[in-house]
Every structure is written in C-alpha cells, then in structure tokens.
Amino acid sequence: MKNQLETIASVIKSTDSCAVANFATKIERRTMFMRKERLPRITILAVGGTIAGKGANTTQITQYQAGVMTVEALIDAVPQIRELAEVSGYQIANIPSFAMTDELWLQLAGKVNELLSHPNCDGVVITHGTDTLEETAYFLHLTVASDKPVVIVGAMRPATALSADGPLNLYNGVALAASEAARGHGVLISLNGRIGSARETTKLHTTAADAFAPHEAGLLGYMVDGKPHFYYKSLRKHTVDSEFDVFGIPQLPRVNIFVGHSQDTRDLIDAAVAAGTAGIVHAGTGNGGIFPLTRQGLQASSKQGVVVVSASRIGNGLVTAKPLDLESHFVVSDNLAPQKARILLQLGLTKTNQSAEIQRMFQIY
Question: 288: closest CA among 334, 238, 224?
Fold first, then answer.
C-alpha cells in the first residue's frame, strides 16, 4: 500500500498529463476488477415449475406446460442478476412441483449442503413450482446444515405470460441470497416482494400472483428495489440448530395424510397401515377433531407402532392435546400445517418412533 501511494505521488508530481491519465485509468480498472471479485457467489438450482413454464400464447396463465425452460434460459432472461452476484446454474430437475418426490428432496438437500460447505459459494437460490414449494422449503429448513442464505422462488404465471412474475422473483431471490442480512434466517421464501420463513409461509390462493403469505405468524420482511428489509426472525430451530441429517439416507419413512370430515371412516387408515406406513398425520376438524370411527382406526394403528400426529385442516391456530389424544399417545402438531407436519414426522421417524420424543420435536421445530 505504501509503495502504491508513493507511486501515485510521483505520478501526480509529473508534468506528463498523459501519464497521469493512463495511471488513473489503470487504477480505475483495477478497482472495478476488485469490486467484481467481491461480488457474492450464488448458485441457482432449478427444479422446474411455472417459473420455467411456457404457454401457447401470452394470455394463458393457467393452461401451460410447467418445467420447460432450462436454468441457463432462466438466468439469461434476467441479465441484471449478474450485477448482484457471480451466478452459476445447475439443473436438479425440470418438473411440475405436484410431481415432487422424497427422492428429489434428498438429492436437493445433498446438493445444497455440498455447495454451501465450500467457501466459493455464498448462497443458493432454488427455482421451484409453487404447488409444493413450501414443502421443499420446510424440508430444507430442517436439513441444511449452514447459516448461509437459501432462498426459494417461483412464479404464479409462466414465463410467456403478460406480466410474468418469475423474472422479478428470480432477481429478488438472488439479491436476497447475496445479502448478509439473509444469513441465519434458515430457508427463505421470496415471492411478490415478500420475505417469509419456510416454516410459516404457505400458498393461500390457486392462481393469484399474490398467492403466498404466512397465516398469523407474519412476514419476516420485504424486498424493495432489490434490497431486503427484515423486521422479524423465526424463533423455532432450523438449519445449523437442527438435529436432522439426511446424508446417506436412501429414502424417507412413509407418512400419509388423511383429512377429517363428517361421516368419516377408518378404511383408508387401515389400508395405509396394511401398506406399511410408519406415520399418519390426521388433518382434523377445528382443533384436531376426529370422527369416532376414524379415531378407532388411529388408535389401532398407534398400538401397532404407527406414530399418529393430530393436526388441523383449518390453517390457523395451534392444535392442543385432548385427554383422548394423550391416552392414545398421539402427537399434536402445534401450529404446523398438515403437509409440513408430515415432513417433520418423516424426519423424526429417521431417529425414533417414540411418540414422546417426536412430540418434543414438534415443540421446538
């Protein structure tokens, strides 16, 4: 640094204006190069979905083919993201997200953990279909062992539609993943200018661009002009504080979800047990209400070693333990939606099938 200052001083003293100009140009180029070198390094993992979808014309927003565009095409469509970060892409899959599988979750978790373990990766953005986006996000929220940003984005309109929302969602996702402010929040969902935790954020509308929001827990913050503004932080355990490790696990335990309703039966529960399910999430009425015949089936399955989680189909509020639930050794889901309760139960079952221990997990994750 001292030598460089001495050189600058000697050049300034020189009467050769061309030498001054040339030296200034070299310093400017070097400064620009150093700034470029300091850009965060973000990897975009593409899974498919509407964000990579194409319709027959620009007015089709529900009739289109999901998972058509490659990760390279998604990146090329938003060249502005290269001003935010050094971006690279990797194609995990190219599917509509209603076709998501446990095997793809395990593959995705392995890839994210591998990338984030290296110092040359500062964060990950995942492009994903919106149907199961929140489920993939919560699975990674519990299985990624890093505090580096992981951001999942998607779109409600295909890339070919008028006012397609995918490009701006991808831009904001990269901006968020490149920000130091995003560290330590676990896996984040960023759509339509909002930042949400993977645990609380859910899809609330079938077709609207503004489809994702938490229920009562609240947003973590907003994306405004490519900059994150955080106001809250989720207090439940995740990522570096999670006890779950799926490395080397070939498959997740089978868990089924059943939605409670009037005039319910136990037939499907009995069939799931016969098929080898390890766990059942019952999305009951109200505060985990269970039709009498259905409860008999759940009690019988619990006695056979199947872990039963009592959840609610409502979407808001906690499910509390009732005397009959305690007697039957049912786990209560806290305020987790049934689809996320299934994920936590699957991961819990990789460690234990003791209902008391799994109840502990539902109280802290």
Answer: 334
Task: Give me the chain's average pLDDT, please.
Answer: 92
Angstrom distance (rounded) from CA 98 to CA 29? 49
Helix (H, G, I), strand (E, B) or coil at 349: helix
**Which one, of 283, 292, 184, 274, lies nearest residue 235 by Cα?**
184
pTM, two decimal places? 0.89
For residue 170, give the H/E element and its range.
helix 166-177
51 Cα distance to chain centroid:
15
Quick: pLDDT tens for 178-230: 999 999 999 999 999 999 999 999 999 999 999 999 988 889 999 999 999 99
Measured between its terminal Cα atoms, the distance across the chain in Å is 50
CA 202 to chain centre: 11
Residues 6+ apart with CB under 8 A from 41: 85, 86, 88, 120, 121, 122
Rounded Cα gap, residues 345 and 281, in angstroms: 8
Give the list of residues 6+ apart from residue 307 with CB closer than 8 angstroms, or none.
Answer: 278, 279, 280, 331, 345, 348, 349, 353, 355, 358
Q: How far apart are CA 133 and CA 114, in angstroms?
A: 21
**Cα gap 32→34, rounded to integer Å:** 5
For 118-165, give the DSSP string: STT--EEEEE--SSSHHHHHHHHHHH----S-EEEE--SS-TTSTT-S
Alpha-carbon gap, residue 118 to 344, rounded angstroms: 27
Tokens, residue 54: 């194409």
**Domains annotated on the chain, with CATH:** 41-241 (3.40.50.1170), 255-364 (3.40.50.40)
Residues annotated as catalytic (active site), given as ranges: 50
Structure confidence at residue 33 (pLDDT): 47
**What is the C-alpha to C-alpha distance for residues 116 and 141, in angstroms, rounded to an integer?**
14
> What is the 8-class DSSP label of residue 7?
H
Whole-number Cα distances in Å, 44 to 51, 134, 173, 320 = 13, 18, 10, 40
